Amino acid sequence: MPTISRNSDAVRLAADGLQAAGTGAFRRRRAGIRSSADEALVRQATDRARDGDEQALRFLYLQYSDAVFSYVSSILGDVHAAEDITQTVFSRLSIRLQRYKPGEAPFGTWIARVAHNAAIDYMRAQRLVPAEEVHDSAASREDVSPERLDVLRQALRTLPGDQREVVVLRFVVGMSASEIGKRLGRSEPAVHALQHKGRRRLRDELIRLDAAPAVRAAA
Questions:
Q1: pLDDT tens-place string over residues 159-196
Q2: Residues 174, 189: Cα–Cα separation, whole Å
Q3: Which class does domain 9-126 fall in?
Q4: Cα–Cα distance for residue pair 85/173, rounded to 1 Å
């Protein structure tokens, strides 16, 4: 069997498995935009999706749409808008993939950037105030009350832009310091410094707002 056919079959079978498992139903995830799929399979899918292959596009949608939805929801605080943006991101994926270079970043990191930009564009169009949230990576979103989330958003808005972006990418998106550094064009030590400064400033603001337990002190 030709290599292309084998690759296509592998992608189609993986998509069938994801669909049977009920993924792609816009369920929130705690983790960032990461994938348990084989990297080679994702690479095959992105290569074929760039040419408009429907099975490859279906696989990428099923594999990543829940995580994209969760990320956009965490920024906007609006699940309906997040659903619309997620659909838009994937409906234009074959076109966007023309600019994707696999050697520069994993697909999960790249699609996170696309989702982030789409969410920011939406907020600018709606003239909304950014509503990013920060949470302890071991804590459940379901355990955080709406009132506490509002306080976290309020505290986040007091951070300088570079610190806020690093904190959101690290603790909401789940990106590593190395991934953040590549995305922002900063060294890994610089990212760590911004992360610690941001968490310290966020902690101080939460203490002032009498909500410090929501975020642990930096180590």
A1: 888 888 888 878 766 778 888 888 788 888 898 999 88
A2: 18
A3: mainly alpha
A4: 16
